[in-house]
Amino acid sequence: MSFPWAKEYTPANGFTKFLDEKLPLPRLVYNAVGAGYPVPRNLSYFWNFGVLAGFFLVLQIVTGIILAMHYAANAQVAFATTEHIMRNVNWGWLMRYAHANGASFFFIVVYLHIFRGFYYSSYKAPREMIWLLGVTIFLLMMATAFMGYVLPWGQMSFWGAKVITGLFGAIPLVGEPIQIWLLGGYAPDNAALNRFFSLHFLLPFVIAGCVILHIWALHIPGSSNPTGVEIKSESDTLPFHPYYTVKDGFGLGVALILFMTMVFFLPNALGHPDNYIEANPLSTPAHIVPEWYFWPFYAILRAFTVDFLFIPAKLLGVIAMFGSILLWFILPWLDRSPVRSGHYRPLFRKFFWFGLIPAMIVLFICGGAPAEEPYVMLSQLATAYYFLHFLVILPIVGQIEKPEPLPYSITEAVLGSDKKAVLGENASPAV
Amino acid sequence: MADTAATATPETADETGDGIRRRDFIDIAAVSAAGVGGLAVLYPLISQMAPSKDVLAASTTEVDVSAIQPGQAIKAVFRKQPLFVRRLTPAEVQEANATPVGALRDPQTLAERTQEGHQDMLVTMGVCTHLGCVPLGAAEGEVKGEFGGYFCPCHGSHYDTAGRIRKGPAPTNLEVPEYTFTSDTTIQVG
């Protein structure tokens, strides 16, 4: 929404006037991330992660295009060209480590971004479309990251490709033909490696397209904020530039310090040593795990160990794993509480901090652990809670909870006021 | 929000009255640091396209020249490009030395283009200095051009017996790479 008090872009000289008539790019930037975009004045650092995710997407595309200049997607030489990048190419080690750790940091910031969305219910009206696009981006990221991990053609690459395409083999009747079709063979080989490379190159640009839609959809209602109360007047807002360019810039600086610390001092800490062994179709590594950012979902996959009725356990695990993310698509319609911010929802907060977050942590740990007790049982409990939380607890809490009084406005929340807000007036989302 | 006297903080107040605020310093310092950092990032991004270590490692070539008879030439490979090694006949040497240097497009004597004591051993790149084609004249039966040296069929450059440009569009003589005789019969190029 362009708020009526948003500052108007005025071209300063002849050239920008010319540009403004023919192709108003400066106006677009001014209204998107400039002084022409009013933003709630109370955004916390949790609102940094969208910009950070955008930064890491760009970083991945830049380093990825460079790696593609030196890499060859051929099963004969893929592993060797990866080592060629590490040893021969000028700064190749930096490009590869930045790309590998960049993927991890992309997921870190996106998980924090999603966490922010969960806690502050950023998915609620009028921002459902932003959320749907965000979940789509997340799914695309997972596909891209998975295919990228196959490219070095190490042991984990190979067996990751085999296991993940094996998921599709769980589909009744058509599963096995689909798996063979996906791989272009009976096991991952040149055909699979080539198509994974092609798609790994393509998908980031699809993600970039979805990001543009995500931001476009965001700019219609504007950002949510920690109170969840909609903007009422100019005093609730600040212009994006300089206030949030500076705040995001600071956050970016902190993120880059952490990122470069990993790249320079712990470049392989998030990787797996088995991937420095060339792919061997005849020998599976003893302990095969996906990259850390897939662990919670991998734990859900492995939590299903017995057949249920006529459904085999293998299929149940696959359905649950995909379902655990796909159900985010209906989240805006599961959580019917009129109050957005978890800050004013005492019951929701209890389930969030003592239910969902511990369950996610347990799933994370179990996903990285071997498939043995007690991890299997813990995964099962956590998986059960995970689905219970979204499908049962959230809808019920939204009905029975008595929210705490909301501030009348963002300004009041920030500056304080004697006017006590009446719940009935502000509990419903501003339309 | 304009900084009025009432809202000015130490960062935004113009304490000394010279129009400079503490925040100006922070602004300039932060933007400068980001700018310098951004430029520093460009260096590896550009440098990665330069020849990699394995390419540089393959940049010397040893050639055995013992079997080349006068009037013959062999083609070797140096940095993935053809290298011509030619043993000139006494007549060819004489012809090259008889050419008035001042009239050449790229004035060089045969002595300048060969090594002392090996004036009959002409080592040049087999790369036309016009646009990079491989000139003819090294292999038996190939056209040697109007000056008896090399002839580039792409755009008609004629080189003489010292590999000097005599006619056609090429701007300079065939390049003589850096090389040394490691023995009487072996040269190391690069």
UniProtKB/TrEMBL annotation, chain A:
The record's principal subcellular location, in a coarse class, is membrane
What is known about its subunit structure? The main subunits of complex b-c1 are: cytochrome b, cytochrome c1 and the Rieske protein.
Q: What does this protein do?
A: Component of the ubiquinol-cytochrome c reductase complex (complex III or cytochrome b-c1 complex), which is a respiratory chain that generates an electrochemical potential coupled to ATP synthesis.
InterPro entries recorded for this chain?
Cyt_b/b6_C (IPR005798), Cyt_b/b6_C_sf (IPR036150), Cyt_b/b6_N (IPR005797), Cytb/b6-like_sf (IPR027387), Cytochrome_b (IPR030689), Cytochrome_b_C_euk/bac (IPR048260), Cytochrome_b_N_euk/bac (IPR048259), Di-haem_cyt_TM (IPR016174)
Q: How does it sit in the membrane?
A: Multi-pass membrane protein
User: What keywords were assigned to this record?
Assistant: Electron transport, Heme, Iron, Membrane, Metal-binding, Respiratory chain, Transmembrane, Transmembrane helix, Transport
From the Swiss-Prot or TrEMBL record, give the protein name: Cytochrome b
Query: Which residue ranges traverse the bilayer?
Result: 45-73, 93-118, 130-151, 163-184, 196-217, 250-271, 315-331, 351-371, 377-397
Q: Which cofactor does it need?
A: heme b
| Residues annotated as domain Cytochrome b/b6 C-terminal region profile | 230-408
According to the entry, every stretch annotated as the Cytochrome b/b6 N-terminal region profile domain falls at 15-227
Q: Could you read off the lineage of the organism from its UniProt record?
A: Bacteria, Pseudomonadati, Pseudomonadota, Alphaproteobacteria, Sphingomonadales
Location of this chain's protein in the cell? Membrane
